UniProtKB/TrEMBL annotation:
Catalytic activity, EC: 1.6.5.4
Organism phylogeny: Eukaryota, Viridiplantae, Streptophyta, Embryophyta, Tracheophyta
Protein name: monodehydroascorbate reductase (NADH)
Assigned GO CC terms: cytoplasm
Stretches of the chain forming a coiled coil according to its record: none
Domain FAD/NAD(P)-binding: 5-321
Monodehydroascorbate reductase 3-like C-terminal domain segment(s): 340-423
Tree of life domain: Eukaryota
Cofactor(s) the protein requires to work: FAD
């Protein structure tokens, strides 16, 4: 038994959702596109899982954060796929792929064939066992990658309220989960081997700002050490963590965020892999011309790096997916993926964005004892990376644009003095003209083409706000209903993007 499609996407996460949206925008016909996902729900905005999903009060739940709400576009509910004739095969793992016969074998025993395949299998969390520690299966040990993990984390968090939570890892997942655990009234200790949190991105000065902020919320940091083993109760729950510095910490729950590994195993030996990812060209096309790879799994040429990179962040998943679909549907009009790396995080009341590459000399600017500060990275005399905490929309757009333009920097002292003003002045200069390029966007060059949908989205948002205000007024009453409703909507958006 088998079915055949023109286009198949394996994986049903962020990149799959945005690819489907782009296919529809470019006129895919009913019955041409199929998505196969081992998850039980339609593609959703994964960042919500460590933010709004973990809130103790009014947490976000599906269907509110399906793709593409993260970019203020349509919410692609399961019905949307049905309406557009897209076959969404859920709860189904692709067990093997044969790139010669262009077929996939699924966990239900079905063979699905494709003309063009998009690999959007993302990544999986590194397990403790891969570092020589056992205990991942304990009922109070949590990872966070998908909806099932998030549901489990919520349950464990609720049953451990007031207790001790140990977070192993000081990266993205560790930092965002630690903040959520605090908000859920757990006593949190973060343990990681480095000298400071977010070691691959933050400078020591930036890290110390966030660490002090976390400490002010009650989080303890134990640095320069790693987990070596757990103590267990008779019913198999972890009761304490043992660290390489010899210390033992009592634990009611443990969250593990020690890194991820791209899901490439289906294609090992069949496609060229590089630095653990599937190697693709600037059109997101792999070593097999019928197969494209996007999102966390794709190792692609990153212009600003001058080499290939695998960017495990949501903006890249969205844009690389759109770019691949453009290259598939309109090859003659689609250039190379010209992507400006963009990462962000939102924890507590904090919010930062980073653009570009963090290499070379660092110039910090702004008020590190206040709310808005940042850093520039200067490499070979050019601005190559920018970080900003607490910025406005205009300021974030300015650092994005300045980084994309890579201005020459002669005087670091002057740059420090100018601070954010430098990015603002550079970004106000007219940008150099550039060929149209759907997915190859930092935020700023995207602005002109998206005026149309911005206007539409604005109207939709206004109607939604009015409807929400009306509903909220009827259900909760009170003054300033409209403003409160707008604030709530903004808050919701903050926690799902
Ligand atoms: C909790 C969390 C918070 C995050 N927060 C941020 C953030 O604040 N900012 C940011 O920039 N990035 C963030 N990220 C990273 C971002 O979500 C990822 O970069 C993005 O989801 C990658 O998209 P993707 O489609 O490549 O992979 P995914 O979204 O992981 O999707 C992969 C999909 O493929 C499925 N799959 C895998 N193998 C198979 C198979 N063999 N058969 C069928 N299906 C399969 C998976 O089940 C999954 O549905 C976060 C990630 C997590 C986990």
């Amino acid at each position: 038994m088998g079915r055949a499609f023109d286009y198949v996407i394996v994986g049903g996460g962020v990149a799959a959702g945005y690819a489907a949206h782009e296919f529809v925008k470019r006129g895919v016909s009913h019955g041409e596109l199929c998505i196969i996902s081992e998850e039980s729900v339609a593609p959703y905005e994964r960042p919500a899982l460590s933010k709004g999903y973990l809130l103790p009060k009014d947490p976000v739940r599906l269907p509110s954060f399906h793709c593409c709400v993260g970019t203020n576009e349509e919410n692609l509910t399961p019905n949307w796929y049905k309406e557009h004739g897209i076959e969404l095969i859920l709860n189904t793992q692709v067990k093997s792929a044969d790139v010669k016969s262009k077929t996939l074998l699924t966990s239900t025993g079905e063979t699905i064939s494709y003309k063009i395949l998009i690999v959007a299998t993302g990544a999986r969390p590194l397990k403790l066992e891969e570092t020589g520690v056992s205990g991942s299966d304990a009922a109070n040990v949590c990872y966070l990658r998908d909806l099932a993990d998030a549901e489990r984390l919520v349950n464990v968090m609720q049953s451990s309220s007031g207790g001790n939570a140990i977070v192993i890892g000081g990266g993205y997942i560790g930092m965002e989960c630690a903040a959520s655990l605090v908000i859920n009234k757990l006593k949190v200790t973060m343990v990681f081997p480095g000298a400071h949190c977010m070691a691959t991105l933050f400078t020591p000065k930036i890290a110390s700002y966030y660490e002090e902020f976390y400490e002010s919320k009650g989080v303890k940091f134990i640095k320069g050490t790693v987990l070596t083993s757990f103590d267990f109760s008779t019913d198999g729950k972890v009761t304490a963590v043992n660290l390489s510095d010899g210390s033992k910490l009592p634990a009611d729950m443990v969250v593990i965020g020690i890194g991820i590994h791209p899901n490439t195993s289906l294609f090992e030996g069949q496609l060229t892999l590089e630095k653990e990812g599937i190697k693709v060209n600037g059109r997101m096309q792999s070593s097999n011309t019928s197969i494209y790879a996007v999102g966390d799994v794709a190792e692609f040429p990153v212009k600003i790096f001058g080499e290939t990179g695998r960017l495990k962040h949501v903006d890249c998943a969205r844009k690389s997916a759109r770019h691949a679909v453009a290259a598939i549907m309109e090859p003659e009009k689609t250039g190379e993926f010209d992507y400006l790396p963009f990462f962000y995080s939102k924890v507590f009341t904090l919010s930062w964005q980073f653009y570009g590459e963090n290499v070379g000399e660092v110039v910090h600017f702004g008020d590190f004892s206040g709310k808005t500060f940042g850093a520039y990275w200067i490499h070979n005399g050019q601005l190559v990376g920018s970080f900003l905490e607490g910025g406005t929309k205009e300021q974030y757009e300015a650092i994005a644009q300045a980084t994309r333009l890579k201005p020459t920097i002669k005087d670091l002292t002057k740059l420090k003095r100018q601070g954010l003003g430098f990015a603002l002045s550079v970004s106000r200069k007219p940008p150099p003209s550039k060929p149209s390029n759907v997915g190859g966007s930092g935020q700023v060059p995207d602005k002109k083409p998206i005026y149309g949908w911005c206007a539409t989205a604005g109207v939709i948002l206004a109607v939604a706000i009015a409807a929400f205000a009306y509903w909220y007024g009827r259900t909760e009453g009170g003054e300033n209903i409209v403003f409160d409703s707008i604030a709530r909507l903004k808050n919701l958006r903050n926690f799902i993007q």
